[in-house]
Amino acid sequence: MSLMIEELDFRPTPIGDLVLRRRKSVQLKGVDIYEVKLGDYFLMSSLFHDAEDQLAKLGLGILEQDNLDVVVGGLGLGYTAVSALEDERVNSLVVVEYLAGVIDWHRKGLVPMGSKLTADPRCRLVQADFFAASRDVSKSFDPENPEHKHDAILLDIDHTPTNVLHQTNTRFYTEEGLGELAQHLKPGGVFGLWADGFPEDSFTTLLGTVFHTAEAHTIEFDNPFTGNNSEGAVYLARVSP
Q1: What is the model's pTM?
Q2: At what angle do helices 201-210 and 175-182 cross, to 10 degrees?
Q3: Among candidates 104, 96, 79, 138, which has minimal Cα distance to 13?
Q4: ∠ CA 191-193-16 to the nearest 5 degrees?
Q5: Alpha helices, DSSP H only, in the chain?
Q6: Which of 32, 59, 83, 119 has the highest Cβ tally under 10 A?
Q7: DSSP string, 17-69
Q8: Order of strands across the sheet with 16-25?
């Protein structure tokens, strides 16, 4: 596959060098592919975002009420956040992103979804550590409304619950860490999680010990690089009404 690569941004961070690049694929008729790397990790590609879209659609789809207050953990290229805003019931969306550079990409228009997010008055981009905020059950993920709880919290940061970007994140994927997250939700609220590959049965079982209900979905999508399907997972868990 013939590709031309342009580096749009490079900056060091406390957890590794952050790189945004754009590829132009001749085989895919000149389509621009945006990619993000952090240190040695390849984080995301604009070519593959079906599971990220479905994280928002499935997570919000099981809620019946209007005027939803939603949190997205991890901004990335913005696909989960944009998908959430496509639900007209969303009243407010707080996107929590640890890396200032990622927020800059969106505000400067370096990535395709940036203008949609920054132009929507319902959406605010907040630089913070999602996992630290989850541990602090005394206040909200929303710094402007610290007393608020949320209808949905949608998380897309680590590769999987067992393949994390930083070892300190592992605590979140335990009964204690998930129990703290659950305290940030309104009655009947939803926690949704994106992960790479097929769902892990052990994690679905763990969600079921913490939340009122838990389920997992496999999202299949075409992969033009391999000529086959690839898979992503969406976990959904709900607190008691």
Answers
A1: 0.94
A2: 50
A3: 104
A4: 125
A5: 50-61, 79-85, 100-107, 114-119, 130-135, 175-182, 201-210
A6: 59
A7: EEEEEEEEETTTTTEEEEEEEETTEEEEETT--HHHHHHHHHHHHT---SSEE
A8: 3-13, 16-25, 31-38, 41-45
Three-class secondary structure of residue 162 per DSSP? coil
Tokens of 29: 């008729």
- pLDDT tens string, the chain, 241 residues long: the values are 345 789 999 999 988 999 999 988 766 666 889 999 999 888 899 988 989 999 999 999 999 999 999 999 999 999 999 999 999 999 999 999 999 999 999 999 999 999 999 999 999 999 999 999 999 999 999 999 999 999 999 999 999 999 999 899 999 999 999 999 999 999 999 999 999 999 999 999 999 999 999 999 999 887 766 667 779 999 999 999 9
End-to-end CA distance of the chain: 51
Asked whether the beta carbons of 107 and 124 are under 8 A apart, the reply is no
| Beta pairing, strands 185-196 & 150-155 | parallel
Instruction: Supply the DSSP symbol for 143.
Output: T
Phi, psi of 18 (to 5 degrees): -105, 125
